[in-house]
């Protein structure tokens, strides 16, 4: 099985469409189609059913996936191990973090890295989805869940907390909610269920069943913007409050704590450029604690 063809097969399997796989791999759709056809011809098997809803793997495709995934794991491991021998302070480092963590911490770390090592290029991906470090979707990730994969190295960065906030205009119009009423008579801002299922069932320990979800978003920055716009009450990290003077904290005694971890694959621990970025991130967080 040719690895170049296999990686395209894996992308189609995971995304479900030829166009989506081509976008992930940053190649054109025609090339992806030719590579898949070449793989099917070499294996003398149909790997996908082409349906209006996308590419559905056949039984042969399911078997091929297991083999191709083992090839991918071996290729990624070899690349990580070679990177681990790289002492150059240049090249690409991929960092994954939420939008709010990127804005408040990672940007400053990148600024410091560029000041000392201008040949390091940081590729920053923001979102609340967890990047797969073993598949090299990122070299470094900042997560709020401590990893249990023994291949991953993790370092505790900080313990932060979230509180409830609303704009002054919202509170002038609707008043402050009363504890124990499950936000009766109030509008709430929440993550989309598809992004964080069950997250909006309670905010800072208060059930939301009597409140009205007025806005659902898919990022922390959009929650901030919605609260600032006076669209409702939202749960925000308290360390952001000094930058948001138009917001009022509701029930200041209530807070929910969360931890942040810096995570990397063990094979990259000695890669100079990865260590330089990791050290800068750690330094920024230490100064914020």
TrEMBL record:
Question: What keywords does the record list, in alphabetical order?
Answer: DNA-binding, Transcription, Transcription regulation
List the InterPro entries: LysR-type_TF_proteobact-type, LysR_HTH_N, LysR_subst-bd, WH-like_DNA-bd_sf, WH_DNA-bd_sf
UniProt keyword annotation of Transcription present: yes
Q: Which PROSITE patterns match?
A: HTH_LYSR (PS50931)
Task: Note whether Amino-acid biosynthesis occurs among the keywords.
Answer: no
Residue stretches making up the HTH lysR-type domain: 1-58
Q: Which domain of life is it from?
A: Bacteria
- Gene3D superfamilies attached here? 3.40.190.290, Winged helix-like DNA-binding domain superfamily/Winged helix DNA-binding domain (1.10.10.10)
Q: Which residues form a coiled coil?
A: none
Family of this protein: Belongs to the LysR transcriptional regulatory family.
Put simply, this protein is called: HTH-type transcriptional regulator DmlR
Q: Which organism is it from?
A: Achromobacter mucicolens
């Amino acid at each position: 099985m040719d690895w170049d063809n296999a990686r395209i097969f894996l992308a189609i399997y995971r995304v479900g469409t030829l166009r989506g796989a081509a976008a992930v791999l940053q190649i054109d759709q025609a090339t992806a189609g030719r590579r898949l056809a070449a793989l099917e011809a070499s294996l003398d098997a149909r790997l996908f059913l082409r349906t209006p809803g996308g590419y559905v793997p056949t039984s042969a495709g399911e078997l091929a996936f297991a083999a191709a995934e083992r090839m991918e794991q071996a290729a990624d491991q070899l690349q990580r191990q070679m990177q681990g021998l790289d002492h150059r302070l240049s090249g690409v480092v991929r960092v994954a973090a939420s939008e709010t963590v990127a804005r408040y911490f990672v940007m400053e770390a990148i600024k410091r890295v560029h000041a000392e090592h201008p040949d390091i290029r940081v590729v920053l991906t923001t979102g609340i989805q967890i990047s797969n470090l073993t598949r090299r979707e990122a070299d470094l990730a900042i997560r709020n869940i401590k990893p249990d994969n023994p291949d991953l190295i993790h370092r505790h960065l900080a313990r932060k907390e979230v509180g409830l906030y609303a704009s002054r205009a919202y509170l002038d119009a609707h008043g402050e909610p009363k504890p124990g009423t499950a936000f009766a008579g109030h509008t709430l801002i929440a993550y989309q269920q598809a992004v964080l299922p069950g997250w909006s069932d309670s905010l800072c320990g208060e059930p939301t069943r009597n409140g009205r979800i007025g806005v659902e978003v898919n990022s922390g920055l959009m929650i901030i913007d919605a609260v600032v716009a006076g669209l409702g009450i939202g749960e925000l990290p308290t360390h952001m409050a000094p930058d948001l003077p138009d917001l009022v904290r509701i029930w200041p005694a209530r807070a929910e704590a969360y931890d942040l971890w810096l995570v990397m694959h063990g094979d990259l621990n000695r890669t100079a450029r990865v260590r330089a970025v990791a050290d800068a991130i750690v330094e920024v967080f230490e100064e914020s604690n």
